[in-house]
Each structure stands twice: as C-alpha cells, then as structure tokens.
Amino acid sequence: QLQLVESGGGLVQPGGSLRLSCAASGFSSDNYDIGWFRQAPGKVREGVSCISRADGSTYYRGSVKGRFTISRDDAKNTVYLQMNSLKPEDTATYYCAATRKTYYSAGYYCERDYVMDYWGKGALVTVSS
C-alpha cells in the first residue's frame, strides 16, 4: 500500500531549525515527484518546496527562499525539507505529497496541489517563543 509518512515536526523558537522527512513506502520514489505543502490555521494550503525529475528544477515559495532546502535520497525513498531561520509565520501543518506526473517542472506542480496523487497525514511545525 502506497504511503507517505512525515516526521521531524515540533516546537521551535524563532530563528531555530528543523528538518522534516517524508518517507515513502509501497512504491519507489524514483517514479514519483514529491513536494512539500503547508496549511496554517484558517488559511489555504500552499506549496512550499518541490523538486522535479523532469528537468531537475526546484521550487521554493518566495517567503522561504534562502531559508529552506529540499533534497531527495532515492536510496532511502525519502525527501527532506531543511528549515532554517524559522519564523512564527512558518507555523503550519506540513504535508508531503507525491505525483506520478513526473513531466512537470517543480514550480508547476508546487503551485497546483490538485495534481498531487498521494498525501501524507502531516507534521505540525510550531514556531514560537
């Protein structure tokens, strides 16, 4: 059964760091693109960072550029999101999602969550002093 499981969320002070992991099981991540999305209370879900096999591109939401880094370890079937210099406005539930449509650029599918085929249950990140 195809499954995505996020881990690494938690409470962190402003300026701190966290690394989220998205472990895929039941399928090989070689055949999927996996990205990170988030949803803050009362707000719509938004794409945070995605990585594309089609053209090797990466996408970062403007507010996280220079602070977050996405990476992929195919041997471990895992995608990571390193988050540095965290701000209170980064507080949200972070979801990883996978799409079989690996012909899209990272920016394309990161801005269109409806193209994603599978979703994890989410990891809560709270940035607060």
Question: What would you note in describing this structure?
Answer:
The protein has 129 residues and is mainly β. It has 1 helix and 11 strands. It has one helix spanning 106-110, and strands at residues 3-7, 10-12, 18-25, 33-39, 46-51, 58-60, 68-73, 78-83, 92-99, 118-119, 123-127. The strands form 2 sheets. Strands 2, 4, 5, 6, 9, 10 and 11 form a 7-stranded mixed beta sheet that branches. Strand 7 and strand 8 form a beta hairpin. The protein is globular, with a radius of gyration of 14 Å.
Short characterization:
This protein has one helix spanning 106-110; strands spanning 3-7, 10-12, 18-25, 33-39, 46-51, 58-60, 68-73, 78-83, 92-99, 118-119, 123-127.
List the helices and strands and how they pair.
Blueprint: E1 3-7, E2 10-12, E3 18-25, E4 33-39, E5 46-51, E6 58-60, E7 68-73, E8 78-83, E9 92-99, H1 106-110, E10 118-119, E11 123-127
Parallel strand pairs: 2-11
Antiparallel strand pairs: 1-3, 3-8, 4-5, 4-9, 5-6, 7-8, 9-10, 9-11
